[in-house]
């Protein structure tokens, strides 16, 4: 089985759309003036967005009819508007029709760093 990967640049417009979909309007994610007062130079990506990206990666890989049965992850650091993240995963076991994966999310580019790890997912494929 192959390794999984998904790369995405998260722009402020994406963050506002995500906030609208999840009703999470914390100023940390969009309000530049509020952030500047706190010494933060850019809006911070909502951490739950990483769960959505990991789920997208796993389900795209697993194919039609697959279901995500478990997903867990731990934040390691902020990701800011305009940064590119790469989600990766690899199969660690297949048992009784359930595939278990180890996953992570890293910021790529000049300021490369781990954003989410460890992360794990389980998926049932038809």
TrEMBL record:
SUPFAM superfamilies listed in its UniProt record: Thioesterase/thiol ester dehydrase-isomerase (SSF54637)
Pfam families: MaoC_dehydratas (PF01575)
InterPro entries attached to this UniProt entry: HotDog_dom_sf, MaoC-like_dom
Superkingdom of this protein's organism: Bacteria
Domain MaoC-like: from-to ranges: 5-100
Gene3D superfamilies xref list: Hotdog Thioesterase (3.10.129.10)
Protein family membership: Belongs to the enoyl-CoA hydratase/isomerase family.
Record protein name field: MaoC/PaaZ C-terminal domain-containing protein
Native source organism of the sequence: Nocardioides hankookensis
